[in-house]
Structure formats: C-alpha cells, structure tokens
Write a structure and sequence with these properties.
The complex is a heterodimer. Chain A is of the alpha/beta class. Chain A has one domain: Beta Polymerase, domain 2 (2-Layer Sandwich). Chain A is built from 17 helices and seven strands. A seven-stranded mixed sheet of chain A has the order 3-4-5-2-1-7-6, with helices on both faces. In chain A, strand 4 and strand 5 form a beta hairpin. In chain A, helix 1 crosses helix 2, helix 9 crosses helix 12 and helix 10 packs across helix 12. Chain B is α+β, with helices and mostly antiparallel strands. Chain B has two domains: about 110 residues, no CATH class; about 180 residues, Rossmann fold (3-Layer(aba) Sandwich), CATH 3.40.50. Chain B is about 30% helix and about 30% strand. In chain B, strands 7, 8, 9, 10, 11, 15, 16 and 17 form an eight-stranded mixed sheet that branches. Chain B has a six-stranded mixed sheet with strand order 3-1-2-4-5-6. Chain B has a three-stranded antiparallel sheet with strand order 12-14-13, sandwiched between helices.
C-alpha cells in the first residue's frame, strides 16, 4: 500500500488522526481520497467528529466542493429512481433498489458522501423483458450493441445489458438476481425478492439486511475488485448499522449458507476488520472462521487485497499492484463461469481483441 | 513572496520539483512542468501573484509535461494532467502555456462547487462590481481588459466565482486571454498593459494573455458585491447601444452562462436570485471600445442617494439610456 493510502485508511478509521498531518501529507490524502471518490466521505466524517473547522482552509475548500458534488449526485439518483418508477408504472411490480441507490433511499449509513454513477435495480426474472421494454419506451437505450456481448449478458449474466438514458445519459442496470447464475454463488432470487423490505414509498424496496451485505460482498470479492476501498466502507457501515441486532447475524449466516456465499462473507469480515477495525461479535466471528479457505489461499488473498486496495497515483504506477489486479481479474473470471465456458469466452475475446475493434474497447467488458 | 522575486531560472527549477504553488486569489494551484519556456511565460503573466512557500496544501496540481517520443524530428508535444490524471494532449510544444491556462479553467469549471461559477468577467471600482457575461466572441474579455487598464480592478475574467450567502464575487485575477484584433486594441490603450507572447494558429486564432495589474492582484482577497450585469455583444461597425432589460430575463441569461448552476442545486438558485435582487441588467451592443467604455461608465453610475435610492422597477423593453 502506498504511503498516501495508509494515511487515508488511518484517517477513515479514526478521523482525529487528521490533526497530525503536515501539508505534504494533506496533499497526499486529498489526492488519494479523490482517486477513490472518498473526498465527500472524508468531509462527512470530519463533520461528524466536529473537526471540520480545525482543518486547514485549503483542505476545507476541497472537501466543500466534494460535499456539494455528492449532494448533487444524490439529487440525481433520487430523480433517476423517480423516473424508473414512472417508466414502470402500470406494471404492478415492486422495484428493488440495489447498492448505492438502496443506501440512499433507505437512508442507510453508507450513503454518507457516497457517489454513484448508475442506478441498479432488481426485478423478477420472468418480468425482465417487460421491464426492459418499458425502459426502452421511456428513453433508455442499450449500451451494448455487440452481438456476443449482448448474448453474454442475456444468457450468462445476472443482469441485462446496461441501459443509458438518451437525454440524461444516466445508466441503469436491471438485474434478475444478485450474482452470475454461472458462478460459484447460488442465490435464490425468489427468496431474495420475497425477503426485500418496502421503503416509505412502498413501490420501492431494498434487500433485507443480510442479503444487502452478502450482495456487496459477492460483488466485491467474486468480481473484479476495482473499487475495493469504497465497497469495503459500505460493508463496514452496514455491519455496524445492522450488527446491533443479534437476529441480523443469525440471518447472515443462514443466507450465506443457503446462497453459497460463505467465502465472500469470510473475506468481507476479515478485511473490514483488518483495514477499518469493524467490530464483529465473538459468536459470529467464530462461525465465520469456519468459512475460511486453506492457509495458502488465505495468504494469497491477503496479499492481493492489500496490494490492490489503494489505487496508486497514475503517474507512479506499481507493477506489484498491477500484477495483483491481473490475478484478481483472472480469479473473478474463474469464479464467474465453469472452465469450459471460460475457455470459450477467452477465445472469443482474444480473437476480437486481435481484430482491434476500437468501439468495443470503450464499452464495459463483461 | 511574489513571483517576480524569483529569477526565471529559479522558477524553472521549482516547476521541475516540487512545483510552484501559485496563489491566484481563490486558488492555490501547484504547477509542475519540465517544458522549456513555461517558466518565462509564467513570469510574464503572473508577475505580481503571491507564491506559497512549500510545504503548502494546494487545491489542485496541474502538470504540463513533455509527451512521448513520436519519431525522429517530430515534436514530442506536451501533455497536461490534473492531480496525476492525464487530461489533455499531446499539443504542440509551443502551446504549453496557453494549454496550462485552459486546463486551469477546466479544473475550475469541472470541480469547483463551493462557488457558483459563470462564464464571465468582472471588475470593481468603489466597492461596486460589474459582471460582463455572454457567449465567446461577445467581447467581454476585451471590455474587461480595457476596464482593468483604466481605473477598474479586475476581479476575474473568463470564469467568475460567486460566493453564496452574501452573495459576493471572489477575486481570482488571472491573465486575460485576448484574441486576434483585441490584442492590438488593448495594446493601443498604453504601455502599462503587459502581455505574454503572442500565440498564432490556436483553435481560437491568435491569442495573447494580458498580465493583471498590480492593484488587481494585491486586492484579490477583497470580495466585491455586484451591482450591474452587462451582456455585451460586439458587432463590427455597429454604433454603441445600451438597453436595460428586465430582472427576470437577466436572471435567465445569468444562469445560461453559469457552468455549475444545475449542480449547485438550491444554493445556486438562491445565490443567483440574490444577485438578481441587487443588480440591474443591461444589453450593450458596441462596435468600438471608446464609446463602449463611456457607455459602461454611465451604466455603472450609482443611483442617486436619498429618495430614489432603490433601483427603479424596469418595465418591458426599458428605454435606452
């Protein structure tokens, strides 16, 4: 981890640490927090700790900008959720919000200073075509035009190809379950939808606490780990917020077992505790310890997570971190699909990279 | 310490490492560059600006670096990055300094939300500020440059910063970018106007930068309350005409020229509404500078104190002055 990264993690864990920083460290902290979209988060934790007036004026300015940007982002997300409901009116369908949108509309702690680029929703699989059609009728367009990628999403992914609104350029991901059906995890989408909790506006729902944590863990530890620190903070906040209730931990264990998500849950608690000092009750800790991989895999993951947690300055790249990210990329694919399918996927992607199709480079690659 | 206290050689060394922290009034920007000539241009453009001694916390870090090797005898070009992230380039090396100014503007327009930012210029005299705004080519920079050479203090040009709350304009006097004929028009005003090199063949034609006056820079820390908003439009050969416009229309035209009105949400609305309450709005059509300056002086005159102190409500298509 870089020095700036260490400072950032230290301050996230204990805001008062910021009072010890010199000017050069401040520059490193703000730079690093900016790269991880965590400036507004810093502003929030400084405010909550009553430190905002004690920090240097220039830093206050930078944080004030970030705070305002997060506020605008939140307004935009609320509006997008409103537009999705508008497009889906008449379908008589509960819309389950996932990730950032869920934290924001359910007013959960991870939403503090959190920026979201897109809105994620979950709908029943047998209604997904109706939902997609309604979106297309209301100004959204598919971002994926390529035949192979379209098929990839539709057959093997847990979402349809991402949509983008033609005027507002906002992105929408419509999911039918919380992890790829071809992968190691085996979520029961019907049970997840049934367990979802209504918000004050009862057309909207969010996942039940256990599923919310598991979804975040699966997303982070079984997929590409590109926004590791941000998502680790989400889980840290959720564990603190839900963890006061013993029933939450029982449900978390039960769902992790039922949906084969023990391993991501193990990593979630391990790294939350390691980097953010998240409190985990002893009983839960003992049960989660039984989900651990063997020592070799565990040590390897420890190294991969530590190496890729912080994004270095683009002008000071690190080969070690690049290598760790490459391994995580390979691992994510390994966990996502069976071997035969993976070989085929690699073959198609390599053949097309060789053809150097410049358009496909700009799109999110599954 | 101000920038002209440093020799060009010392400046150049600082630009290499650890960077020069320039205080432009509202921003402390760390500039780094390994491109020859940037130091000399900064010395001309920011002669009177304060520089912070390191270690200093900066708002942003702008780097102008030589691009990758592209073949024998070919210009490597220059690449601009902000906080370590490459943003623009490669551009021809001789445009390194104008590129630095563009990227600085880009940074402000893109990331600053603690102020309502407008594509405009502003000057102040006797505590009363004028905002000049409108599309590119309307002549606002030329007018701003001219006024700043004749008794008005330059608050800011190209992008102005409105602090919500008061509302007041925050000083950020930077070199004024002048294009084509405007360069000579301002040179004609007298020898006090100091310029950088002249850059030909940019996407905006020929450009040069006017160094802000010593007084403008020294008083950058003084916020100013706006009292007039002027929408200039330059037309070759046109006579100078002034038309006061309604406040509602002025409000709409102000937000059209704001770069972050939408993202500042309610704060933005309230600040622009505050400006609208205390300002009068004018359209100014002009074909020559001399009569335009005279018209602006007249627009800027305070309302007579006493009985008629409050600005008169303006009817539709108010009478020309």
């Amino acid at each position: 981890m870089t020095q700036d990264g260490e400072t950032l993690v230290r301050v996230l864990r204990d805001a008062r640490q910021v009072l010890t920083l010199g000017a050069a460290q401040w520059n490193g902290l703000l730079d690093c927090a900016g790269r991880h979209a965590l400036l507004a988060r810093l502003a929030v934790i400084f405010e909550e700790s009553g430190l905002l007036d004690e920090i240097p004026q220039t830093a206050q300015d930078v944080l004030a900008d970030a705070r305002a940007a997060a506020k605008a982002n939140h307004a935009m997300q609320r509006y997008e959720a409103n537009r999705v409901l508008h497009a889906l009116r008449g379908l008589d369908l509960p819309v389950v919000l996932l990730k950032g949108g869920a934290y924001l509309l359910a007013e959960l702690p991870p939403s503090r200073g959190r920026l979201s680029g897109d809105l994620d929703i979950l709908v029943p699989r047998d209604r997904i075509e109706e939902v997609e059609q309604a979106m297309l009728d209301h100004g959204w367009q598919s971002l994926v035009t390529d035949g192979y990628d379209q098929r990839y999403y539709r057959e093997w992914s847990h979402q349809i190809p991402p949509l983008r609104h033609t005027e507002r350029e906002s992105e929408l991901d419509v999911h039918h379950t919380i992890a790829p059906p071809t992968g190691r995890a085996a979520p029961d989408a019907q049970a997840i939808l049934r367990d979802a909790r209504p918000l004050k506006d009862d057309r909207l729902r969010v996942l039940c606490p256990a599923d919310m944590v598991l979804h975040s863990a699966v997303h982070l530890f079984n997929e590409q780990m590109t926004t590791t620190l941000r998502e680790l903070i989400d889980m840290h906040d959720l564990l603190i917020c839900f963890g006061r209730d013993d029933a939450f931990w029982r449900q978390l264990m039960a769902h992790a077992g039922a949906y084969k998500m023990q391993r991501p849950l193990y990593y979630c608690t391990r790294y939350c505790r390691r980097f953010l000092s998240t409190p985990i009750p002893q009983q839960a800790e003992k049960e989660i310890e039984a989900m651990a991989p063997n020592a070799v895999v565990r040590n390897l993951m420890d190294w991969l997570v530590a190496a890729s947690l912080i994004h270095e300055r683009p002008d000071r790249p690190s080969h070690g971190a690049d290598f760790a990210r490459w391994i995580l990329f390979v691992r994510a694919h390994w966990l996502r699909m069976p071997l035969g399918m993976l070989i085929r996927h690699i073959f198609v992607k390599t053949a097309r990279r060789a053809k150097r199709d410049p358009d496909s480079e700009l799109l999110p690659q599954p | 310490m101000i920038l002209s206290d440093l020799s060009v050689a010392a400046l150049s060394a600082r630009l290499h490492d650890p960077g020069l922290v320039l205080n432009t009034g509202a921003f402390r920007v760390r500039l780094r560059s390994d491109v020859e000539g940037v130091a000399r241009e900064l010395a001309a453009a920011y002669a009177n600006h304060r520089i912070e001694s390191d270690p200093a916390i900066h708002h942003m870090r702008i780097e102008i670096r030589r691009g990758r090797w592209r073949g024998f005898g070919r210009d490597r070009g220059v690449v601009a990055s902000v906080n370590g992230q490459a943003i623009l380039g490669p551009f021809p090396t001789y445009l390194a300094y104008p590129m630095l100014e563009s990227i600085f503007n880009w940074c402000i327009a893109k990331s600053v939300l603690r102020f309502i930012v407008f594509h405009a210029g502003a000057v102040e005299r006797d505590g009363r500020a004028l905002i000049l705004t409108g599309p590119s080519g309307s002549g606002k920079s030329t007018l701003c440059a001219g006024l700043s050479q004749s008794g008005w203090r330059l608050i800011s040009d190209e992008l102005i910063l409105l602090r919500p709350g008061d509302p007041a304009l925050v000083g950020n006097p930077r070199p004024i970018s002048l294009k084509n004929e405007a360069i000579d028009r301002i040179r004609d005003l007298g020898p006090a106007a100091k310029f950088t090199e002249v850059y030909e063949g940019t996407i905006r034609g020929t450009i040069s930068f006017l160094c802000p006056t010593e007084e403008s820079v020294a008083r950058a820390g003084e916020p100013a309350v706006p009292s007039r908003v002027i929408f200039p439009s330059f037309r070759t050969g046109s006579a100078t005409e002034v038309k006061e416009i309604e406040k509602a229309q002025g409000f709409m035209r102000l937000i059209e020229n704001s770069v972050n009105y939408v993202t500042t949400l309610r704060t933005g609305f309230e600040a622009v509404a505050g400006v609208t309450d205390i300002c009068r709005f004018y359209e100014l059509t002009f074909g020559d500078l001399e009569t335009a300056f005279a018209a602006i002086e007249k627009i800027a005159e305070p309302e007579p104190t006493g009985a008629g102190a409050a600005p008169k409500p303006t009817g539709a298509g108010a009478a020309p002055l």
